[in-house]
Design a protein that fits this description.
The protein is an alpha+beta fold. The protein folds into two domains: about 140 residues, Beta-Lactamase (2-Layer Sandwich), CATH 3.30.450; about 90 residues, no CATH class. Helix content is about 25%, strand content about 25%. The chain is built from seven helices and eight strands, in the order H-H-E-E-H-H-H-E-E-E-H-H-E-E-E. The strands form two sheets. The chain has a five-stranded antiparallel β-sheet with strand order 2-1-5-4-3, with helices on both faces. The protein has a three-stranded antiparallel β-sheet with strand order 6-7-8. The radius of gyration is 27 Å and the shape is elongated. The C terminus is likely disordered. It comes from Dentiscutata heterogama. This is 621_t:CDS:1.
């Protein structure tokens, strides 16, 4: 039996979310780890440390790297791994097991040396969608009494939002520094297209230039503002010279909605240009 899981006030957690009860009642004889009574004391101690730690932790143990984890790890990984307990890593992480996870785990098994990585990028299924995520994590070997590596303790921290903020600030800084050398509106648009093309945070960009015509008045009394689609990250080639509104070759994907070349902001001020019609296939 494992120790009861307690919160910071020393009270037993609600049985509905008490992983200790779930682990104690799990039929481990159906896994590569065998019945819980056969587990070595050192292994049970590692499991208890995992369960009592506030930091998200998952253990990969046994010949097929069976998963045991705490509540913090289950909450962080959300719907994708709610039923991962007692399952081999290859079954839980089919999208990244062979190329990413297995080589690291097998290297630790062979060398007995751990790994630490910061802001590591992963792409996996979470919340019903394929998401990009970044984690600080460590992989530490768990030893049996005979000195062999029986498993790996993976402590991790989700730093996705911080990593994305840094990336986006870098993009803004690159836009600022490079457009400062632009000699025309056309060259500014081309620079922005180059910076934003294949940007990890911006799947596409539509760059409009607004024509402020003081001589025209709309019925509402505001100046007439005409927005021309100057360039997009789907365009081929360059905008030559000072021709900003000239015809360019565009290649919008099939899933992309109809895109206006010209928008009269004074007439269409209440128009909803919703560009999230249907995303690209995953």
């Amino acid at each position: 039996m494992l120790l009861p899981l307690t919160n910071n006030r020393g009270k037993i957690e609600n049985e509905e979310s008490n992983l200790v009860d779930i682990l104690n009642n799990y039929d481990w004889s159906t896994t590569s780890l065998g019945p819980m009574d056969s587990w070595e004391p050192a292994f049970k101690a590692s499991v208890n440390i995992c369960l009592q730690t506030a930091l998200p932790i998952v253990l990969y143990v046994g010949p097929d790297w069976t998963l045991i984890y705490n509540e913090a790890w289950r909450s962080m990984l959300m719907t994708n791994n709610q039923h991962a307990l007692g399952k081999p890593a290859a079954q839980v992480w089919p999208e990244m097991y062979d190329n990413v996870l297995k080589p690291k785990l097998e290297n630790i098994r062979a060398t007995g040396k751990g790994i630490v990585e910061n802001a590591k990028y992963f792409k996996f299924q979470r919340n019903g969608n394929v998401e990009e995520a970044y984690f600080d994590y460590s992989l530490s070997p768990l030893f049996k009494s005979d000195g062999t590596v029986w498993g790996v303790l993976n402590a991790m921290r989700d730093v996705t939002q911080n990593a994305l903020n840094i990336q986006r600030l870098r993009t803004l800084e690159e836009l600022r520094s490079r457009t400062s050398d632009a000699v025309s509106l056309a060259s500014s648009c081309e620079i922005m297209k180059t910076v934003l093309h294949n940007n990890a945070d911006i799947p596409y960009a539509l760059i409009y230039l607004v024509e402020n015509n003081d001589s025209k008045k709309s019925l509402s009394g505001f100046k007439s503002h005409i927005a021309h689609l100057a360039i997009t990250t789907f365009d081929d080639g360059y905008i030559n010279g000072n021709v900003v509104y000239g015809k360019v070759k565009r290649h919008f994907p099939d899933y992309f909605p109809e895109t206006p070349e010209i928008i009269d902001l004074s007439k269409d001020i209440d128009e909803n240009y919703n560009y999230i019609k249907q995303g690209p296939p995953v």
